[in-house]
Structure formats: C-alpha cells, structure tokens
Amino acid sequence: MRLAIQIQLRYAIPAPCSLLLQIEAAKGPGQVIEADNLSVDSAVTWNVITGDDGIGQRRWAEFAEMFDCAYTATVRVNRPATAIAALSATPITALPANVTPYLMPSRYCHPEAFFTFVPMQFGEAAGGGLVKQMADWIGTHFTYDNAASTAATTATDSFHAMAGVCRDYAHVLIAMARSVGIPARMASVYAPDVTPQDFHAVVEVYLDGAWHLIDPTGMAQPNRMVMIGVGRDAADVSFMTSYGQMDL
Question: Which class does domain 2-78+238-243 fall in?
Fold first, then answer.
C-alpha cells in the first residue's frame, strides 16, 4: 500500500538550544520511499547521523527563537503480514551480537519485574504464540488514556496502572518479552489507522532469526506501518529530544 505522510512541528525557543530530530521514514526492507522532503523555516546546518541498528536517520542542529519544521513523504509499504503466533523463539545462545542488548533492562523496561507474572499468567506458551497472548492481554486489560502517564513512566508503572498511551503499551510488552528471553525493542512508526493521528510506538520481537512488528494497542498492522526508527525503549526513538527549553 502507498501512504502519504505530512508533519508540521512548530516550537518557540526562549534561548538557543540543540535538538535531535527523528521523524523521517526509514529506507530499508519492507518500505520504499518514493518521495520525501524535510524543510525548516530558518537557515540551519544539519549533522545527519544513522539511527540505532542502522535503521533510519537522526539530525542534530542548533536553533534559536523558533523551530518550524515540515516533513512530507510518499512511502510504498511492501512488508508482508506475518502470522506471529506461528513463529518459534530463537535460542538465547544463538542470538547475534546486535540482538543480545534487547534482552537487557533499559531506562523504561525492567524485565525482572515480570519474572513471576508472565509464566503464572501465560503458562507453557512460548515463542510467537506467547508474544501474541501477551499483546492481546495488554490490549484487553489496558485503558488508552493520555493522562495516565508522563515522560518518566516505566513499564512497571504502566502495568500497575493498567493504562497509558502507545509508548506505555509497547514498554509493557517489551519488558514482558525480555523477561522470558525473547529480545524486544521499540519501533516508532506512522500508521493510517492510529487514533488520534500521531507518532506511534509499537514493538519488534526477535523470533525465528528475524525481527517482527506487533502493536499491542491493536490499532496498527505491520503491513500498514511506515517505520521511522528503533531503540531499546522510548528514550531511543523520541521524535525529538531537546537540550534546552522548547514550547509547543
């Protein structure tokens, strides 16, 4: 399918600051960038760097007074739908070097908090079948609530609150998957079925020797997502990180 993306970000900046921007659709398997353009309403010199694991790109720049940015893209998604429940877990001892870090605790995802809950709740399920059950459980038991979390909320906090937004749903599934030896990471994406329309956070799990997308909110399907970037959790894939005050 072909998706048209249009983004506008406008911030007032009381004092000059640096920012790291990650909003551009990634070039790579599963999607083809047919056209894209990023523009800002000021003269700027970008330092463009590669995103985590070589997926997508980020831009460093200095801004003062105003950040007014527009991004448009046309992307053809050719990622096939995968029956994730049929996939097998990759043995931990067979994990490659670039996958192993996604088993470890990270800023927002602490798998040790789920060591008891996951086997107690899901029994003998394993691999993709277990991932699907965990995602379905989160989607069924959580309430989507914009007021339920902040930038400091962890997966453990969200689990106790049983509420949050897409980043919180994703953090809980990541922590649960890691707790049973399944590497998991966050992916930032665009998707047409997300309500309200915004940057969307989903999960990639490593099964059968490859990464596979899954959305625990149930709003987006892998064959209708445009990937922006990946990381250990939301700290790595924020659409923008500012080193100084910026007012939306």
Answer: mainly beta
